[in-house]
Structure formats: structure tokens, C-alpha cells
Design a protein that fits this description.
SH3 type barrels, Fumarylacetoacetate hydrolase, domain 2, twelve-stranded mixed beta sheet, globular, binds magnesium ion
Length: 321
């Protein structure tokens, strides 16, 4: 099942993607309960995070809603579904999550990317993680607005794991129980701050990774049962139609269970948390073809969809002296 956050008119809604249509989750659930004469037992879900907090119960309800709507659509009750189903092309798809408790990103988790950035063969022995603020999140179609002084803007397609179940000290064998699903995160980076110009070769993570719009996310949150082998998926990224990144998730040094088990030794994982699993080779850092205003970036992961954004340069407000 693919879930989305979308705007129809002025309202932000939680949706279930059904081919080229989207079902309004709350509206459909309300109608389903009315038809089955069941009293309204709970208030509508405010957003994706509220949905994820419900855990397995939320997923079960979503499946029930999806099955019921599809059945109604096949039968004579199609008219009753007016206002519950929309054409995907006619609504604005927003990031699946705009308020995750945490966005944790792995650096250097693909062998090929380590070679292009660090230039040596030594592999990390532990996770290297940085965090992005929620203000970095933008949705499909939103512009990647960058500070005017940014000269070395880069892209990184990544498989983002979305946490569904709270946990601390999660054992390796239970780690996947805490996953709700997956989405795409484009880990936008300003390579000027990667440390190549710093005498101590220090990475300045804040400037490199945290600015507004540096985390395009989406288009959908795909529940984990749809992606049987998240390490076997293919990740591809195009800039202006030219294929720049094309790799398989199997290249990951630290696999998803290990990332969850290790991070939860230090921090409580909560529903809605995002763990982005790193990027493969093909970034602008290796080609020196940095992104510029007007560039169209498209990220695609098998089974999830395609995330498209355009680079836009902000007006200068303040310049570093
Ligand atoms: Mg990255």
C-alpha cells in the first residue's frame, strides 16, 4: 500500500494511492463507519505521523478502507464515493511526512560513494550519522531553493526508512518490526563544506546538509510489505534527463536492521522518524558537474515512485565576508 499526504482545495489530507487515483483516508473511513452503522469511535487522523503512531491497527484500518472503497467503485455505489476519490494529477502531493520527530542520515554507507568522496578503500567500522531539521523537507514538485552563495550544490538519492514503532535498545532480530515503510530522500548537499578547502579537512555538516529545502522527500510512503527486499532495490537519479546515479541497495555497508539496532542504543526511535540510508556513486562531487538554477532532478526507487524537483536560487540577503 502506498500512502500519501495531499492537498485538495485548501485542506491537507491523508491518502491511499490507487493507481492513478487517491483515496481520502479520513473521508472514506467516516463513510464506511456510517454505512456499517458503527459509531464514530475516534477523531480523524491529523496526519501521517498520527497514522504511524497507531501502528498495526492503523495499517489494518487503511487496508479495510482501501478494500471497501474498491468494492464500492466496482458496484453501483460509485456515486456515493464522490468527494472521496481524486485523480492523482489533480491534487497537490505534499511530502509524506512534514513533521518527523527526527531525520537521521547516514553518510558514507555505499562503497562506491566513499571512493568518489574520500578516494581511498578503507571502509567505516561504525555508522556516520548527521541530522537534518524538518525545515529542510520539501515535497514533490517543490523548488529546491538554495542560498545564492552556494556554488557546489549536489544531489544524493537515498532510500529513506520510516519508523513505525517506538523503541530503544532494539535487538538486531527485532529491528525490522520497527519499520513502517519506505520513501525517497534526496540528500541535497553543498560540497563547499565537505572539508576539501579546510586545512584540517573538517566537514562542516550544518552548512553542507541542513539548509531549508535540502531534503526533498516523497512522493509516497510505501508500506514495508510491498518492498520485500529493501537492499535489492534499484536507485536512479537523473539531472535534466541525464542518468547520474544508478545503483542497487545491496551495496550498503550497514544494512537496515543494523542501522536501527545501533542508533537505538543511543536514541529512542519514534513513529515518523526517518533514517536515510546513504547514497551510491554518481554525485556531482565526482563529476564536478554541480547543480545550477533551473536544473531538474528526478529520483526514482523501484516500487516507491519518482520524486522530481527543480533548483531555484534565493535572492541574496546576507553574504559571508
Ligand atoms: Mg547522503
Amino acid at each position: 500500500m502506498k500512502l500519501a499526504t495531499f492537498r485538495q482545495g485548501r485542506e491537507v489530507r491523508l491518502g491511499i494511492v490507487w493507481d492513478d487515483k487517491i483515496i481520502d483516508f479520513n473521508a472514506a473511513l467516516r463513510l464506511l463507519r456510517k454505512k456499517s452503522s458503527r459509531p464514530e469511535t475516534s477523531s480523524p487522523l491529523a496526519d501521517m505521523k498520527s497514522f504511524l503512531t497507531l501502528g498495526a491497527r492503523g495499517v489494518q484500518t487503511a487496508r479495510k478502507v482501501e478494500t471497501w472503497v474498491k468494492k464500492q467503485a466496482e458496484g453501483k455505489s460509485r456515486a456515493a464515493l464522490r468527494g472521496l476519490i481524486f485523480d492523482l494529477s489533480k491534487v497537490k502531493i505534499l511530502p509524506p511526512l512534514s513533521n518527523p520527530p527526527k531525520i537521521m542520515c547516514l553518510a558514507r554507507n555505499y562503497v562506491s560513494h566513499i571512493r568518489e568522496v574520500i578516494g581511498d578503500e578503507s571502509l567505516p567500522t561504525d555508522l556516520l550519522i548527521f541530522m537534518k531539521p524538518t525545515t529542510a523537507i520539501i515535497g514533490p514538485g517543490d523548488p529546491i531553493t538554495v542560498p545564492p552563495e552556494c556554488r557546489e550544490l549536489d544531489h544524493e538519492i537515498e532510500l529513506a526508512v520510516v519508523i513505525g514503532q517506538k523503541g530503544r535498545f532494539i535487538p538486531l532480530e527485532k529491528a525490522m518490526d520497527h519499520v513502517a515503510g519506505y520513501t525517497i530522500l534526496n540528500d541535497i548537499s553543498d560540497r563547499e563544506y565537505v572539508g576539501k578547502n579546510d586545512p584540517g579537512r573538517r566537514v562542516n555538516w550544518f552548512f553542507m546538509k541542513a539548509p531549508d529545502a535540502f531534503a526533498p522527500l516523497g512522493p509516497y510512503l510505501v508500506l514495508k510489505d510491498e518492498i520485500k527486499d529493501p537492499h535489492g532495490i534499484r536507485l536512479r537519479l537523473w539531472v535534466n534527463g541525464e542518468l547520474r546515479q544508478d545503483s542497487l541497495g545491496e551495496e550498503m555497508i550497514f544494512k537496515i536492521p543494523e542501522i536501527i539496532a545501533r542508533t537505538s542504543q543511543f536514541i529512542t526511535l519514534e513513529p515518523g522518524d526517518i533514517l536515510s540510508t546513504g547514497t551510491p556513486t554518481g554525485t556531482s562531487f565526482s563529476t564536478q558537474q554541480y547543480l545550477k538554477a533551473g536544473d531538474v532532478i528526478e529520483c526514482e526507487i523501484e516500487g516507491i515512485g519518482r520524486l522530481r524537483n527543480i533548483v531555484k536560487v534565493e535572492k541574496p540577503m546576507y553574504r559571508k565576508q
